[in-house]
Amino acid sequence: MNRDMSRNWIVSTALPVHYQVRMVDGLLDLDNRALLEAGATRRSDTIRRLIVIDAAVDHLYGVQLRHYLQHHGVKYQILALPISETLKTMDAVFTVVEAINAFGLSRRHEPIIAMGGGVLMDIVGLAASLYRRSTPYVRVPTTLIGLVDAGVGAKTGVNHAAHKNRLGTYFPAKDTLLDRGFLRTLDTRHLVNGLAEILKIALIKDRTLFELLDRHGTTLIDERMQGHTPESAQAAAQVIERAITGMIEELEFNLWEHKLERVVDYGHTFSPTVEMLALPELLHGEAVNIDMALTTILSVQRGLISVEERDRIFALMRKLELPVYHRICEPAVLEEALADTVRHRDGLQRLPLAMGIGAACFVNDVRPSELRAALATLRELDGGSSPLLEAAHA
Ligand SMILES: NC(=O)c1ccc[n+]([C@@H]2O[C@H](COP(=O)([O-])OP(=O)(O)OC[C@H]3O[C@@H](n4cnc5c(N)ncnc54)[C@H](O)[C@@H]3O)[C@@H](O)[C@H]2O)c1
Ligand SMILES: [Zn+2]
């Protein structure tokens, strides 16, 4: 008799991941079938869809959406969720789960459609990944952050216990349909908020993108990226394409973030804590920009960026009307933010810093004194010009 009861099983498997992100113009035009076919693995005579939509987007596009669905004979339910960063919680995920249950979703063939900004897509993505352990979904981003960032990667999540995105999964949508026409109704502040994530890509890896933002930034804001002239149309298309391409280049080889040195974490070291502490005053991209302003100064202190380059970067941030400072940024807050990020990055700072404009490196040895010096310079450079924000954009 074999008395050795300590057997060992090693299970090894691979998970192929394919997902699609594509530009689509006129998504709700009646002759455009992209939304009907997105994420569906088989054709059926009756199309059923559950659509989870940001209530504000429903208000703006709901009539057109229903007309589109009715025109194509789709049997649909629409769940309109009120959206804000403070409502990005598990409660919202449970609301979506209940709607999925009530709809009686077929598990593999009826992708959930998530229509809205980053908050809505993060909530629905998490619900889809949890529901019966995974249910396909399709993303239709309607904000600039959604188009160039939240709609491109694999991350889902909600805030929990005052921590940003503390609960979440890696679960990309099968298909993401990018129609920048939705941006025409976005307010200036949220458009600019998205430009901050684009500036991030520019600073760490794409100098041409920086030049494009510098040259066309104001027009892109005024025209809501809709391109009213051939020149601005080309600029808007190039800016969005370069931002998405840059993002995907960084994500594709590291989708599950096994490698914790990520240049796309630039601007996301101090900002998660700053954003949550300042809620609801700061938007995500605004907090990211403050982080980038601070770390630009850290780069200058370490001789990685010249003072002239720093001034160019700050001038562009101002041109885009992005805040570079918020009063919540006290030394103790920044130190705690860094400590929390070190836990998130498995014991090391792995802090991406810009090297000049368009390249990055990582450091692990930023000290509190260095941080305090950078903060003092930041306050000087800001000179009280980023008081906030509702007033500035009203
Ligand atoms: N999963 C990811 O990889 C990822 C990446 C970046 C950001 N995010 C998350 O995304 C969130 C920020 O996303 P956001 O900036 O899109 O914010 P958001 O989803 O809160 O949308 C911003 C505002 O715009 C409104 N809105 C949406 N579409 C509109 C339209 N077409 N016209 C008019 N108003 C519209 C919304 O109702 C909301 O008030 C943050 O929670 C952030 O953590 C996630
Ligand atoms: Zn971000």
From TrEMBL:
InterPro entries: Dehydroquinate_synthase (IPR050071), DHQS/DOIS_N (IPR030960), DHQS_C (IPR056179), EEVS-like (IPR035872). GO terms for molecular function: 3-dehydroquinate synthase activity; metal ion binding; nucleotide binding. One of its GO terms (biological process) is antibiotic biosynthetic process. Residues 194-332 form the 3-dehydroquinate synthase C-terminal domain. The lineage of its organism: Bacteria, Pseudomonadati, Myxococcota, Myxococcia, Myxococcales. Pfam families: DHQ_synthase (PF01761), DHQS_C (PF24621). This is 3-dehydroquinate synthase. Its cofactor is NAD(+). Keywords: Lyase, Metal-binding, NAD, Nucleotide-binding. Gene3D superfamilies: 3.40.50.1970, Dehydroquinate synthase-like - alpha domain. Residues 80-191 form the 3-dehydroquinate synthase N-terminal domain.
